[in-house]
Amino acid sequence: MKKVMVPSEKGTSEFTIKKSRFISHLYKVADDGEVKQLLKTLRAEHPQSRHVVWAYVLGDAGTLYGLSDDGEPHGTAGRPVLEVLKGSGMTYAAVFVIRYFGGIKLGTGGLVQAYTQAAQEAVAEVEAVEKIDYTSVLLECSYSQYERIKGLLQGHEAREISEDFAENVTISAEIPDRNIEACGSDIFDFSQGSVEIMTADE
Questions:
Q1: What does pTM read for this prediction?
Q2: Which of 30, 50, 70, 118 could form a disulfide with 97 if both were Cys (CB 3.0 to 4.6 A apart)?
Q3: Which residues pair with 136 in a beta bridge?
Q4: End-to-end CA distance of the chain
Q5: Measured between alpha carbons, how far is 176 from 155 in angstroms, rounded to an integer?
Q6: For the chain, which domains are there?
Q7: Per-residue pLDDT tens for 110-168?
Q8: What's residue 102's pLDDT?
Protein backbone atom coordinates (compact mmCIF):
# COMPACT_ATOMS: atom_id res chain seq x y z
CA MET A 1 0.00 0.00 0.00
CA LYS A 2 1.34 3.41 -0.97
CA LYS A 3 2.37 5.63 1.91
CA VAL A 4 0.38 8.83 2.45
CA MET A 5 2.83 11.72 2.87
CA VAL A 6 1.91 14.97 4.65
CA PRO A 7 3.80 18.12 5.73
CA SER A 8 5.73 17.72 8.97
CA GLU A 9 5.12 21.35 9.99
CA LYS A 10 4.32 24.83 8.69
CA GLY A 11 6.61 26.27 6.01
CA THR A 12 7.04 29.99 5.31
CA SER A 13 8.89 32.04 2.69
CA GLU A 14 9.12 35.69 1.70
CA PHE A 15 10.77 37.56 -1.19
CA THR A 16 10.29 40.69 -3.31
CA ILE A 17 10.15 40.95 -7.11
CA LYS A 18 9.88 44.41 -8.76
CA LYS A 19 8.63 45.91 -5.49
CA SER A 20 5.87 43.29 -5.11
CA ARG A 21 6.21 41.35 -1.86
CA PHE A 22 5.28 37.66 -1.86
CA ILE A 23 4.72 35.85 1.46
CA SER A 24 3.93 32.14 1.25
CA HIS A 25 2.76 29.68 3.90
CA LEU A 26 2.38 25.91 3.64
CA TYR A 27 0.06 24.26 6.17
CA LYS A 28 -0.98 20.72 6.96
CA VAL A 29 -4.79 20.70 6.71
CA ALA A 30 -7.48 18.11 7.43
CA ASP A 31 -10.19 19.34 5.05
CA ASP A 32 -11.39 22.27 2.93
CA GLY A 33 -13.14 23.77 5.96
CA GLU A 34 -9.74 24.26 7.58
CA VAL A 35 -8.47 25.83 4.34
CA LYS A 36 -11.33 28.36 4.43
CA GLN A 37 -10.62 29.18 8.07
CA LEU A 38 -6.90 29.73 7.38
CA LEU A 39 -7.78 31.93 4.40
CA LYS A 40 -10.04 34.05 6.60
CA THR A 41 -7.28 34.36 9.22
CA LEU A 42 -4.63 35.36 6.66
CA ARG A 43 -6.89 37.97 5.06
CA ALA A 44 -7.43 39.48 8.52
CA GLU A 45 -3.67 39.45 9.21
CA HIS A 46 -2.85 41.09 5.85
CA PRO A 47 -5.62 43.63 5.19
CA GLN A 48 -3.40 45.76 2.93
CA SER A 49 -2.43 42.89 0.62
CA ARG A 50 -3.73 42.90 -2.96
CA HIS A 51 -4.13 39.12 -3.35
CA VAL A 52 -4.24 35.98 -1.21
CA VAL A 53 -3.79 33.16 -3.71
CA TRP A 54 -4.24 29.57 -2.53
CA ALA A 55 -4.27 25.93 -3.54
CA TYR A 56 -4.72 22.66 -1.69
CA VAL A 57 -4.42 18.89 -2.14
CA LEU A 58 -6.55 16.56 0.03
CA GLY A 59 -7.43 12.89 0.37
CA ASP A 60 -5.23 9.86 1.05
CA ALA A 61 -4.77 9.46 -2.71
CA GLY A 62 -4.03 13.18 -3.15
CA THR A 63 -6.74 13.53 -5.78
CA LEU A 64 -8.92 16.28 -4.24
CA TYR A 65 -7.84 19.74 -5.37
CA GLY A 66 -8.86 23.34 -4.89
CA LEU A 67 -7.35 26.64 -6.02
CA SER A 68 -7.96 30.36 -6.42
CA ASP A 69 -6.22 33.10 -8.44
CA ASP A 70 -7.91 35.68 -6.16
CA GLY A 71 -8.06 38.37 -8.83
CA GLU A 72 -4.79 37.61 -10.62
CA PRO A 73 -5.13 36.81 -14.35
CA HIS A 74 -6.65 33.34 -14.84
CA GLY A 75 -4.10 30.53 -14.59
CA THR A 76 -1.19 32.69 -13.44
CA ALA A 77 -1.38 32.12 -9.69
CA GLY A 78 -3.50 29.32 -8.21
CA ARG A 79 -2.61 26.82 -10.94
CA PRO A 80 1.19 27.18 -10.58
CA VAL A 81 0.86 26.87 -6.79
CA LEU A 82 -1.26 23.73 -7.17
CA GLU A 83 1.23 22.17 -9.62
CA VAL A 84 4.07 22.66 -7.13
CA LEU A 85 1.96 21.07 -4.38
CA LYS A 86 1.05 18.10 -6.59
CA GLY A 87 4.70 17.67 -7.54
CA SER A 88 5.73 17.58 -3.86
CA GLY A 89 4.01 14.23 -3.36
CA MET A 90 2.28 15.56 -0.24
CA THR A 91 -1.42 15.59 0.50
CA TYR A 92 -3.52 17.23 3.23
CA ALA A 93 -1.50 20.33 2.38
CA ALA A 94 -2.41 23.91 1.46
CA VAL A 95 -0.25 26.78 0.23
CA PHE A 96 -1.30 30.43 0.57
CA VAL A 97 0.62 33.20 -1.19
CA ILE A 98 0.00 36.76 -0.02
CA ARG A 99 0.98 39.47 -2.51
CA TYR A 100 1.54 43.10 -1.67
CA PHE A 101 1.49 44.87 -5.04
CA GLY A 102 4.47 47.14 -5.59
CA GLY A 103 3.10 49.17 -8.50
CA ILE A 104 4.99 47.38 -11.28
CA LYS A 105 3.11 44.76 -13.32
CA LEU A 106 4.95 41.46 -13.70
CA GLY A 107 3.15 40.20 -16.80
CA THR A 108 1.67 36.74 -17.24
CA GLY A 109 5.01 34.91 -17.35
CA GLY A 110 6.36 36.90 -14.43
CA LEU A 111 3.34 36.07 -12.30
CA VAL A 112 3.57 32.34 -13.04
CA GLN A 113 7.27 32.42 -12.16
CA ALA A 114 6.71 34.38 -8.93
CA TYR A 115 3.86 32.19 -7.65
CA THR A 116 5.76 29.03 -8.60
CA GLN A 117 8.80 30.27 -6.67
CA ALA A 118 6.66 31.24 -3.66
CA ALA A 119 5.12 27.76 -3.48
CA GLN A 120 8.45 25.99 -4.07
CA GLU A 121 10.16 27.91 -1.27
CA ALA A 122 7.37 27.16 1.23
CA VAL A 123 7.39 23.46 0.27
CA ALA A 124 11.19 23.34 0.61
CA GLU A 125 10.88 24.49 4.23
CA VAL A 126 9.13 21.31 5.38
CA GLU A 127 9.78 17.61 5.41
CA ALA A 128 7.26 15.13 4.02
CA VAL A 129 6.34 12.57 6.69
CA GLU A 130 4.05 9.56 6.59
CA LYS A 131 0.47 10.13 7.73
CA ILE A 132 -0.37 7.59 10.41
CA ASP A 133 -3.93 7.08 11.67
CA TYR A 134 -4.29 6.05 15.31
CA THR A 135 -7.07 4.37 17.30
CA SER A 136 -7.53 4.77 21.06
CA VAL A 137 -7.49 1.45 22.91
CA LEU A 138 -8.03 0.23 26.46
CA LEU A 139 -6.99 -2.96 28.23
CA GLU A 140 -6.83 -4.37 31.74
CA CYS A 141 -4.09 -6.69 32.97
CA SER A 142 -2.55 -8.02 36.19
CA TYR A 143 0.52 -6.45 37.79
CA SER A 144 2.59 -9.47 36.76
CA GLN A 145 1.60 -8.97 33.12
CA TYR A 146 2.01 -5.20 33.10
CA GLU A 147 5.69 -4.74 32.12
CA ARG A 148 5.54 -7.24 29.27
CA ILE A 149 2.30 -5.85 27.90
CA LYS A 150 3.59 -2.28 28.03
CA GLY A 151 6.64 -3.48 26.11
CA LEU A 152 4.42 -5.06 23.46
CA LEU A 153 2.47 -1.82 23.11
CA GLN A 154 5.66 0.18 22.67
CA GLY A 155 6.92 -2.38 20.16
CA HIS A 156 3.84 -1.71 18.06
CA GLU A 157 4.46 2.07 18.09
CA ALA A 158 1.80 2.92 20.67
CA ARG A 159 1.78 6.52 21.94
CA GLU A 160 0.04 8.45 24.72
CA ILE A 161 0.32 5.44 27.01
CA SER A 162 -1.20 6.01 30.44
CA GLU A 163 -1.83 3.62 33.32
CA ASP A 164 -4.24 3.45 36.22
CA PHE A 165 -3.02 1.25 39.06
CA ALA A 166 -5.88 -0.19 41.11
CA GLU A 167 -6.77 -3.81 41.80
CA ASN A 168 -5.49 -4.48 38.27
CA VAL A 169 -3.66 -2.19 35.84
CA THR A 170 -5.79 -0.38 33.28
CA ILE A 171 -3.79 0.88 30.30
CA SER A 172 -4.99 3.31 27.66
CA ALA A 173 -2.98 4.13 24.55
CA GLU A 174 -3.18 5.10 20.89
CA ILE A 175 -2.00 2.49 18.40
CA PRO A 176 -1.43 2.96 14.65
CA ASP A 177 -4.38 1.41 12.82
CA ARG A 178 -2.01 -0.72 10.75
CA ASN A 179 -0.61 -2.32 13.96
CA ILE A 180 -3.77 -2.91 16.00
CA GLU A 181 -4.45 -6.44 14.76
CA ALA A 182 -0.85 -7.65 15.30
CA CYS A 183 -0.59 -5.93 18.69
CA GLY A 184 -3.87 -7.43 19.87
CA SER A 185 -2.75 -10.86 18.69
CA ASP A 186 0.62 -10.61 20.51
CA ILE A 187 -1.03 -9.51 23.77
CA PHE A 188 -3.70 -12.21 23.49
CA ASP A 189 -1.02 -14.88 22.91
CA PHE A 190 1.22 -13.66 25.74
CA SER A 191 -1.65 -13.53 28.23
CA GLN A 192 -3.08 -16.85 27.00
CA GLY A 193 -6.31 -15.10 26.17
CA SER A 194 -6.79 -13.35 29.49
CA VAL A 195 -6.12 -9.83 28.13
CA GLU A 196 -7.80 -8.35 25.08
CA ILE A 197 -7.47 -4.92 23.50
CA MET A 198 -10.70 -2.94 23.31
CA THR A 199 -11.11 0.14 21.20
CA ALA A 200 -12.38 3.19 23.09
CA ASP A 201 -15.86 2.98 21.55
CA GLU A 202 -16.43 -0.69 22.44
A1: 0.75
A2: 118
A3: 174
A4: 28
A5: 11
A6: 5-130 (3.30.230.30), 134-199 (3.30.70.240)
A7: 999 999 999 999 999 999 988 888 889 899 989 999 999 999 999 998 888 899 999 89
A8: 87
